[in-house]
Amino acid sequence: MDWGTDLWDQYDGIDKHTQSGLDLVERYIKFVKERTEVEQSYAKQLRSLSKKYAKRGSKEEQDCKFSNHASFQEILNELNDYAGQRELIAENMMTGICVELTKYLQDIKQERKTHLSDAKKAQQNLEGSFKQLESTKKRFAKEWAEADKATQQAEKIENDLNATRLDVEKAKQHSHARMHTAEECRNDYAAQLQKYNKEQNFFYYSEIPQIFNKLQDMDERRIRRLAEGYCQFSDMEKRVLPIISKCLEGISSAGVKINENQDSILFIEQLKSGFERPGDVEFEDYTQGIKPATSDSSLNPPKVRAKLWPFNKKHKISHAEKHMPPAAEDFSHLPPEQRKKRLQAKIDDITKELQKAQDQSEALEKMKGVYEQNPQMGDPSSLEPQISETAQNIGRLRGELTKYETWLSEAVGGEESSNNINNNTQHGVVTADQSPHIYTEFDDEFDDLEAPLGQCTALYTFEGNSEGTISITEGELLSIMEEDKGDGWMRVLRARGEEGYIPSSYVKHTS
To answer: Which pTM does this prediction carry?
Structure first.
């Protein structure tokens, strides 16, 4: 079964059907375009989301040392890669389906237009032939009527007794002429009829069936191409599914590799002060002599053991803190534990800078080798200033690294602990447990509840927000428990029993 045989008289139906097919292709192209817009919008929102929650800055980098923080950053990175795959799907659909189908649609529209134009031309030719047939038929009918009339007139004249011989001959000649003309018209009509029947047979049995069959072939090719476009809609997403699966697996892996114990240990290493817990409060035997009562304004505050190290509090930098003495390069102005942590952080920063400088030096040397082998790419001597500057930078960083490692060695207990520190610096962590004897003497003094060395008055308000420090207020009277040993800090006792370090420049000795 084909269109030419079974639909030979359904030109209008074929016209509408093929146009409906082209409209469907256009609808599908529009549908895919809107799908790509959805994918692009989705990918854009995913990228914005991952960017919004991605951490930046030194504080965030510090947090990312914990596995649960680092895993979340990995999830955001995987989500960003996932968004890239959605963008790839949109791009492939636009180029592989929309662009290609649009081009194919233009070609098939032109082909359909040509076939329908040929069918109309054939129809017009047949109609023209039929009009010519009708014209010859009418002429034949007219001439035959005139000939018949002339014959009847001739017979009438011939039978008329009053007619002359000349009139009779003249009427007969006219009748013969008319009959001859009518016979010629009859022959023309018969020939034209034969021609029309031949053209009509060709039109209905050959010409139109061929055109309709071409339209059928065109429509079937259009359907097959559209079916391929339908499959592409799925295949283009299937092609990126392995990568999408890897992104999702990466997100799962980020969750699986979180180690809560390791995070807790790292948090301990970052914050522990290394001080021992306060000892028991000794019994004061009042039977040996009643001690005078004291108050907040007393010059001899009671030796009450309250919580040794207060919880950290956020505070704004006061006017007095702004005028503190400049920090020492070796951080000797800080309490011991704080000094160790700052030195270790400085060593980590210098190590990163040194690695970056070494990588840059290696890259410059490789580039110089390329220029030497291929002079047309560049002049090797032009790299010498950068190479020299990088080498000087590496030397400077190595010197600083050695200097800070030496200070760190001193801070944790001298040469005896230096080997342990050098090993731990590779991992960026120095634990306070490596030198527990540092605070032994300090703790013994606390346990013995030593007597104050003197009194002092606070010149400024200071909010202790780190390990080992306490908060004081301007004008407050304090007992000196340990003098400044050259690091800019002294240990004092408040009237309420709180004890800890404060900056030496914040107080004035009264006794």
So the answer is: 0.54
